[in-house]
Design goal:
Elements: E1 22-25, E2 32-40, E3 43-53, E4 59-64, E5 69-72
Antiparallel strand pairs: 1-2, 1-5, 2-3, 3-4
Length: 90
Amino acid sequence: MLTATIDAFETPPAASFNVGDVVTLKEGGPRMTVTYAGPVALNPGNWLICEWFDEQGELRREMFAPANVRAEPRSIPAGSVLWNRVSRAA
C-alpha cells in the first residue's frame, strides 16, 4: 500500500537562474541579462546581478532577489520589435 503526505506549508523551490539567462522584474521593466548568480558579500542568501540598457542607451547594473524576477525567452520575436524606436546610423 502506497501512502503519501502533503505538507500544506511546503513551498516550491525558487527558480534557479544561470549566467546568461534573460529576466524581467515580476512587476515589469526592461529585459535584463543575468551576469552573476549566487551569494553576495554581507547579503544573506543568493542574489542575481543583472545588466541592461536603459532608454538612453546607458548600461545599468543592479542586484535582485531571484524571487523578484521571472525568466524570459532569450530571443525576441520579430513581430514585437517597435520600429518607431529603432534608428539608423547615418
